[in-house]
User: Fold this.
Amino acid sequence: MKKSESKPHKGSSEKESTCCKVESLVTVDERGQMVLPKEIRDAAGICPGDKLFVIPWKKENKICCITLVRTDEFSDAVKDKLGPILKDII
Assistant:
């Protein structure tokens, strides 16, 4: 094995997971506001004025995770799911 190659840890796969990788750290100010880092906004295609749904995830009745979903992505998903059903009803 070459020096630049690293050996995977026992129990891990050779593919790097991108699902739950810590990308950056944000701080909540005294008004409850936080700034998404530019790299994250750029990668997600989030622009000034975009609207995002905030979806809290609960575990044992406590919020453990927060998901942000672009409203246009959400409405497209709803149309994709409900469109065929409503077409049959209407």
